[in-house]
Amino acid sequence: RRLLPRRTTTNVVAHAGDPGAGRTLVLVAHHDAAHSGLIFHPGIAPAAARIAPKAYARNDTSLQTGAVIVSGPALAAAGALAGIRALRLAGMVIALGSVAAMADIARRPVVPGANDNLTAVAVLLAIAGRLAAEPVPGVRVLLVSTGSEESFMEGMRGFVRRHRAELDPRHTTVLALECLGSDRLALLEGEGMVRVRDYDERAKALVAAGAQDAGIPLWRGLRLGAGGTDALPAMRAGIPAACLGAAGPFKVPSNYHWPTDTPENVHWETVQQAIDVAWAAVRRAATP
């Protein structure tokens, strides 16, 4: 990372709720958008589902891109050490493919980012408005809009470094909001680009209870392997975290990292559902 160009990113942090409360709920949504790339082509998931429908239906974890990238050099090294030419060539092909994919992403423009992730920022603003109109005693709420999530969650990592001392894991929950304009609202089970780690059970239970209070069904069972969310830096710091997202019929966010990620392609009903669930989670967090 030190060898790559650097620019300044900005986090926006708003303090709301009860400032003297013993419990803290951090709602976080990134406001940056991603570059596009052929690996994000919206036809890939439907094609995979057509080619291997049973396997696709069984698999609820998206492709772990980090594991694929690491496997190239690992296979090449193993093949060289063992003297197995086929293994070495397979590693070289994967490594070169990874480099080509990254180069393709680097040369493409940034997508509009309506679903990923301005829908989540809209939820933050809606919750801020409700807290101003209807203060909720018993819980301190931090509304965090991060930059540079698309470059390995650098904004959230900075937030955690700066505020870790004041975020007691015993009394703090982080809820990441991601791609909330897809077809169905989902409470993800875990994430990880190389090794999937499940989110904290208590954090997931808080969101699930909020959804039940709001009368909104949540898609359960999905795990994120392709990329990461702002929940990950919190998890690594030992802070309980969960992620509220949404997905389309092929278990991926709609128009993900593609030029069609525009306001007219957002499912606004899902965004409203996310607002209702997040608000119910705030009220639940205030319950002793």
TrEMBL record:
<feature type="domain" description="Peptidase M28">
    <location>
        <begin position="110"/>
        <end position="281"/>
    </location>
</feature>
<keyword id="KW-0645">Protease</keyword>
<keyword id="KW-0031">Aminopeptidase</keyword>
<dbReference type="Pfam" id="PF04389">
    <property type="entry name" value="Peptidase_M28"/>
</dbReference>
<dbReference type="InterPro" id="IPR051464">
    <property type="entry name" value="Peptidase_M42_aminopept"/>
</dbReference>
<dbReference type="InterPro" id="IPR007484">
    <property type="entry name" value="Peptidase_M28"/>
</dbReference>
<protein>
    <submittedName>
        <fullName>Aminopeptidase</fullName>
    </submittedName>
</protein>
<keyword id="KW-0378">Hydrolase</keyword>
<dbReference type="GO" id="GO:0004177">
    <property type="term" value="F:aminopeptidase activity"/>
</dbReference>
